[in-house]
Amino acid sequence: MWFKKPYLLVFAVAITSCFQSLAANNSRPSSSKAVIDLTSQSLTKGVELNNQWEFYWNQLLSPQDTTSKKGLLVNFPFEWTKKLDGKSFPSFGYATFKVTVLLPKNKKALLIAIPEVYCAYRLYVNGVLESSNGVVGKNKDDFEPYWERNTVLVSANVDTLNLLLQISNFAHSKGGIKKALIIGNKDDLLLEEKQTASINLLLTGCLLMGGLFFLGLYLLGKSDKTILLFSLFSLVFSYRIIGTDTYILHSIIPNMNWYFTVRLEYLSLFIGIGLFSHYTLNLYPKDIRPLVANGICIASAFFSLAVLCLPAVYFTQLVDPFLVVMLFCLLYVPYVYIKAYRRNRPGAIYTLMSSLALLPVFAISLLHYWVIIPPYQMVTFTCYIAFFFLQSLALSYRVSFALKNAKRIAEEGYEAKSEFLSNMSHEIRTPLNAVIGMSHLLLKSKPTEDQKEHLDVLLFSANNLLAIVNDILDYHKIEAGKISIEHVEMDITTIANYVVKGLELAAKEKGLALNLTIDKAIQNKVIGDPTRTSQVITNLVHNAIKFTEKGSVDVSITVVSQTKTSITLTIQVKDTGVGISTEKQGLVFERFEQAGSSEFNGPRGTGLGLSISKRILELQNSTLYLKSVEGKGSTFFFEQTFEKGEERNEINYNLEPVKENLKPFEGICILLVEDNPMNVLVAQRYLEGWGATIDVALNGFEALHKYDDSRHRIILMDLQMPILDGYEAAKKMRKTGVTKPIIALTANLATEIEAQIAAVGIDDYIIKPFLPKELFKKVSQYAIEKQQSEEHQLI
After folding, report:
1. How far apart are CA 64 and CA 393, in angstroms?
2. Global model pTM greater than 0.70
3. Are 211 and 389 in contact (CB under 8 A)?
4. CA R_g for the chain
5. How far is CA 676 from CA 19, 186, 442, 457, 554, in A?
6. DSSP helix/strand/coil, 95
7. Residue 175 phi/psi, 5° resolution?
8. If DSSP codes are grouped into helix, strand and coil, which group holds residue 746?
9. Are 186 and 111 in contact (CB under 8 A)?
């Protein structure tokens, strides 16, 4: 590669020296008077006054000076530190340049544009002082440097200009003037000056805003060192646009200290290259040699330290040596970007394109620095914008790539969390099924009062644990946005009655009255989600009972308004419990926050019930409200509008189980497929107690061999079993022509299995841990009622 061949770098430096020598070539001394004849030239686009001028070393001539001493004729612009006839003048000193300019006939005003000089000047036009920069003096004490572009107005119809330019330098390593004065039509030159200023200001603004944006991104969001380095590079390099060459900043903020601004000018160059090298190292660390990048950074730091420590006369000599570092960096960085692109690094295509856009900028800058070509500002501006835009795209792609990876990792973590919660639910529900089931069986076996009390505590604790598991899983699903709201016909009064009947025992145990009031104006069923509506009302009533020690809990459903097609209801749960302080009322709907005063010593649960209820209602465009007075009770209520369904029928809400002396399942043989011995025992005891005959299979494979179509009326199938699970067993049974009902026994939630069990032909499910009533209801529905219906159809 080129960077492994030093002679190529030497060749580049040699070419650089040739350009500088050509730019510095001056004529030999002459005694002729300097005259520039422009009488035959058009001044529309501006003409450089770069012919021969008279040069008077260590003389500050005035326009009235009639000295007979003749000056040297030199090619203007002339840096007196460059060799002239084999010798050069020292950088510190002063001199006068004189020339006569013959102008064409011109009825329009002209303008002379004056660049910066080394380092102070006075310009006299036809004997009048028209422009100056700094203070011209014959020694360091009388001298004051300053750089700023100025213009001089030349009146119309003037045919001759006698220009006298005094220059002194006691600060810079160079002396004299590097760029030519330009004369042209006033309007054209002013327009060009405004265009130059506008372009530089616009580019500076772009760099500043881009740099500040990425700095903010680093500080407030993505703490990526690469972003920080690019933001600093943009901010530092913005000074190169506004504080050098045309020195617009010096016009915006006049009388700035030259010794300060010249240090900023050199520091912005040296630090900028170092920052960009370090930025590239952090952007593609595997594609750049750290030794090379660190070498550039160290060189930049060394040059920057020299600027801070040395006088201007010394550090201003460092530009030419630093050009070697710049050229190396300019060629090495695209090589790095090419490697990154070939290795498919994130955003490498943009960085490669940006480096190609930067090449013309540096080429133009170098050639303009050597006064070989004009600045070509529009080309430079376009390339700069392209460079910073493409680099911004590369960083944006980098941030986007990192965010996508973070999102993927978060999603994988979330899936792992979901799987863990699902497994946890299954593993907890499975033994809970045995605990709750055996508790119910023991309660039926006429225990003593002490035993009954112990069993009640056991059953309460098991149900409490089940409620906690359900709350955690529900909240997780709501947070993940995986909960769906059904729109089916439901009888909301029936739901409220079932909730109240189901919690009557809990209220009676605390000596509370649990009352339900239904508005008689409710004559229709409504369209909604019966499961979620029941969950919300249950949470509110259960919460009220939990935080009420005496008095009552009143549940009411009232009609706010109704039309032929819709009805708006207010559902309210009011208690006489501990109440909630005003400062805590805004917190009770947050997750894990507990409703109730600090004096309450009862069981508090997870603190998820109200939060879950609130979010479920929000999914149905409703809001849960609270009114409470500490020590006097609370009222939770919400208002919801439903579509009307068909007219409702009166229902018997008696939830008492079947009488124990009856054997409703006598003559029914059931195939129970379950691998957990405790769950087998629970289900077997219930079903045999109701008169059924039970055949047990320990897995799906065994069930396929044990099933007898002439014997078994219904199949109760666990879903998670060894060898062959319930899904595959049911699928194979259906393929072999089994038409008997298959009911899934599962510890999974219904929403997790509904689609899967339907796909394999399972008719229904019972969620573990199940209550005796639920098991009885499902078996009765599929083993008795369905068969009776089929026999009736055959008749």
Report:
1. 62
2. no
3. no
4. 46
5. 92, 100, 20, 25, 42
6. strand
7. -130, 155
8. strand
9. yes
Q: Starting from the edge strand earliest in sequence, which strands make up the sheet with 110-114, in order?
A: 47-48, 182-185, 110-114, 150-154
DSSP state of 582: G
Number of H helices, E strands in the chain: 20, 23
Q: What is the rounded distance in angstroms from the CA atom of residue 274 to the CA atom of residue 272?
A: 5
Half-sphere exposure of 486 (CA within 13 A, CB side): 11
Contact between residue 750 and residue 767 where contact means Cβ atoms under 8 Å apart: yes
Which of the listed ranges 122-126, 225-229, 316-320, 523-527 does the model predict with the highest average pLDDT? 122-126
What integer pLDDT is reported at residue 648 of this predicted model? 75
Within 8 A by CB and 6+ apart from 52, the residues are 27, 30, 32, 34, 73, 74, 75, 76, 99
Q: Which two tokens stand for residue 179?
A: 């760029």
Mean of pLDDT values over 727-755? 85
Bridge partners of residue 650, in order along the sequence = none
Extract the tokens encoding 639. Answer: 């208002």
- Map tokens 């909730």 to a residue: 499
Q: What is the mean pLDDT of the chain?
A: 83
- Residues in a beta bridge with 515: 554
Query: Chain-centre distance of CA 692, in angstroms?
Result: 62
* CB within 8 Å of 765: residues ≥ 6 apart: 743, 744, 745, 746, 750, 753, 754, 757
* Contact present, 20 and 367 (Cβ < 8 Å): no
- 185: part of which helix (H) or strand (E)? strand 182-185
Judged on CB neighbours under 10 Å (0-12, 13-18, 19+), 454 is middle
Which pair of structure tokens corresponds to residue 717? 């199938």
Burial of 17 per CB tally in 10 Å (0-12, 13-18, 19+) = exposed
Q: How far apart are CA 637 and CA 185, in angstroms?
A: 83
Q: Does pLDDT of 776 surpass 60?
A: yes
Considering only CA atoms, which of 245, 262, 61 is closest in space to residue 171?
Answer: 262
Structure tokens at 60: 């500050």
Spell out the residues 6+ positions from residue 515 whose beta carbon is closer than 8 angstroms to its own: 552, 553, 554, 555
* 3-class state of residue 161 by DSSP: strand
How many residues are recorded in the chain?
Answer: 795
The closest alpha carbon to 634, from 592, 599, 584, belongs to: 584
Identify the band that residue 431 occupies on the pLDDT scale cut at 50, 70 and 90: confident
Cα-Cα-Cα-Cα torsion 326, 331, 334, 335, nearest 10 degrees, comes to: -130
Convert the pLDDT of each residue in 265-280 to its tens digit: 999 999 999 998 998 9
Decide: 17 and 324 in contact? Cβ < 8 Å.
Answer: no
Q: Which domains does the chain have, with CATH numbers?
A: 29-191 (2.60.120.260), 486-647 (3.30.565.10), 669-794 (3.40.50.2300)
Whole-Å CA distances, 155 to 42, 113, 182, 186: 17, 14, 16, 10
Asked if the bond preceding 77 is cis, omega within 30° of 0, the reply is: yes
Is the distance from CB of 686 to CB of 708 less than 8 angstroms? no
> Which residue's entry shows tokens 């950074």?
297
Q: Are 102 and 38 in contact (CB under 8 A)?
A: yes
Between CA 78 and CA 46 the distance in angstroms is 20
